[in-house]
Design goal:
single chain, alpha/beta, seven-stranded mixed barrel, 51% helix
């Protein structure tokens, strides 16, 4: 019965089923052999040895294999209270890593700030405080609480609300970061398409410059062509004017001929010895002399 009790309390744990590992701390102050080794406040082993390796504290531990600790877990020296005893806290990191085996070395986690270190670091701050100003601030705070005793309660309530909102925002932060990354990805794609469009626009501008250069060379002869066209138009106007004058003269000549009789002209021509041939429908034979057919149409 005594042997079973010794194994239960850990006094003779070396004879039981356990995994012996060690870790190295820069400071193991307050930690003693036989101290607890725990995960989330639940004891899973004990500290079996304390040693020194140059500037490191080598802490040997015996851990229950049933706890399922993996080789990538880390160890920290924690205190049960502000002035309480020290123990080793094991922080697991994965569920599918290799199981912890004898001789493994656990990596130390973030170091904890000791109360004496905190007091020492606050020493210069305390010395820098002016006692008169500090007393004045405390007096003002006391007067404010006397006038409104519920103010401190409201301040604490507001602080709780602020912390709750911060926690809610921190939970939503990963989704916001994912959306921000997606937005940045879309923006990069849009910028890429814009760069391609700008490249095409540059090519079009180069082509437009070439076309404008060709147009400029083609328009070099336009002033001479315009001068020739102007001269041609002037000549055409002169020709039209001359034609109008000639037409007026012809019209006058034709108007003068309207007063002559065709038969009289023929008769005068025959008298002058000029032969005039008449159409058969215009004359009748009377003593071999041509006469105007009555009723004929000129």
């Amino acid at each position: 019965m005594l042997g079973v009790m010794a194994l239960q309390v850990g006094a003779l744990s070396g004879f039981g089923d356990s995994v012996d590992v060690e870790t190295r701390f820069t400071d193991a102050g307050g930690l003693q052999s036989g101290a607890s080794v725990a995960v989330a406040g639940v004891q899973i082993g004990t500290v079996t040895s304390l040693a020194i390796d140059f500037d490191r504290a080598v802490v040997g531990m015996s851990i229950d294999p049933g706890a399922g600790i993996r080789h990538d877990a880390t160890a920290q020296v924690r205190a049960r209270s502000v002035l309480g005893e020290k123990y080793v806290e094991i922080v697991p990191h994965s569920r599918d890593g290799r199981m912890l085996a004898d001789g493994d070395i656990l990596q130390p986690g973030p170091e904890q700030t000791e109360i004496d270190e905190l007091v020492s670091s606050m020493g210069p701050l305390v010395e820098a405080i002016d006692p008169v100003v500090f007393q004045r601030v405390i007096g003002s705070l006391a007067l404010a609480l006397e006038d409104d005793p519920e103010r401190l309660t409201r301040m604490l309530s507001n602080a709780d609300t602020l912390l709750a909102n911060g926690a809610e925002a921190s939970r939503e932060l990963p989704a916001l970061m994912s959306e921000g990354r997606a937005t940045l990805g879309s923006l990069r794609g849009t910028l890429g398409r814009a760069d391609r469009a700008v490249a095409k626009l540059d090519a079009l501008l180069v082509d437009a410059d070439a076309v404008l250069a060709d147009v400029g060379s083609a328009t070099d002869g336009l002033p001479a062509l315009a001068d020739e066209a102007t001269l041609t138009l002037q000549e055409a106007r002169s020709l039209v004017t001359s034609f109008s004058t000639t037409k007026s003269a012809v019209d006058e000549f034709l108007a003068g001929l309207e007063g002559f009789d065709k038969w009289e002209i023929r008769r005068l021509l025959r008298e002058e010895g000029i032969l005039v041939r008449l159409r058969s429908r215009e004359v009748v034979e009377e003593d071999n002399e041509p006469y105007r057919r009555r009723g004929s149409v000129e």
